[in-house]
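ZP: hey, is the PBG complex queued? I don't see it on the tracker
AM: it wasn't, my bad. submitting now with these inputs:
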Amino acid sequence: MAFPVTRLRRLRRNEQMRSLVRETRLTPQSFVLPLFVCPGEAVRKPVVSMPGVSNLSIDELVKEAQTAQSLGIPAVILFGLPEKKDTSASGAWSDDGIVQRATRALKREVPSLLVIGDVCLCEYMSHGHCGVVQAETREASVQASGAVAARKAVAIEYEIANDATLDILAHTAVSQARAGMDIIAPSDMMDGRVAAIRKALDEAGYQNTPILSYAAKFASAFYGPFREAADSAPQFGDRRSYQMDGANLREALREITTDLEEGADMIMVKPAMPYLDVISEARRRFDVPVAAYQVSGEYAMIQAAAQNNWIDGKKVMMESLISIKRAGADVILTYFAKEAAKLLA
Ligand code: PBG
């Protein structure tokens, strides 16, 4: 039946009507608030490129978590800024690491708030990569022009060693679980990490600790502001040998399949808005909870344009979040969690 019998505008005439037929609804219950925890006391150090986000010492982190909970947000995800970085990422897996101490404080002060641990090494490695760096020195013979003898040139090639990284990730996950972490979320993109973490958790007695794997994590320029917040930019090279190529949807589905086969309980797509098709396809193909991460660059762009009055920040925030939900995300990790929860209340 076509126009004039069909008039789709009939159901859009006023807000009550629009609300009645709304297909997707946001609720704070599906939000996860990312938090950056740093050493010290009474520290709230603003992240310049992420207005509204700060590095928080543990005492401030607890307050922030209480606020989040009072707004109906069920979970936070923790990123740590360690006192020192090294080449074994000791700050990630030591039992008195910043995230472990923060987790114990949160589980003591805000016990019913879920705490998710991002398991990755980039914040703890002096070189800023998500895994162990192996340097290979190659000697190459170079014929210097006009010279009699051939000179030896030395080229250094770097490799992020997959299998050597798995042990460290597994150690990190167990140490976080021991501190009381509710959910383990590996974000490093090494092959086989979910299996390694599952095995280590089970052997340590944490059979009931779920894994939320950053399964389809793309090598994205949208992570820029996060690397300021977490001080985790790679000191050389980039992450394209482990994070995914942004052009690949089928490969993303393979990543999800392998992580589920290895024992992931939930999967994540990241970033969110530039990859809504991946979220949608993941939702259609897999019967597990799908999370999406609206990352730092997505947040920063909206905040920057809003500060210039180029867009209506609140409306764009809500529209961006509903798009992620409509695409199929059950869980949304977003720096807007508190602000959006306030608007939804
Ligand atoms: C750690 C990690 C990153 C993010 C989440 N976990 C940074 C990266 O991969 O470089 C990015 C989150 C964001 O941009 O908000 N590997």
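AM: back. The longest strand covers residues 132-142.
ZP: great, adding it to the tracker
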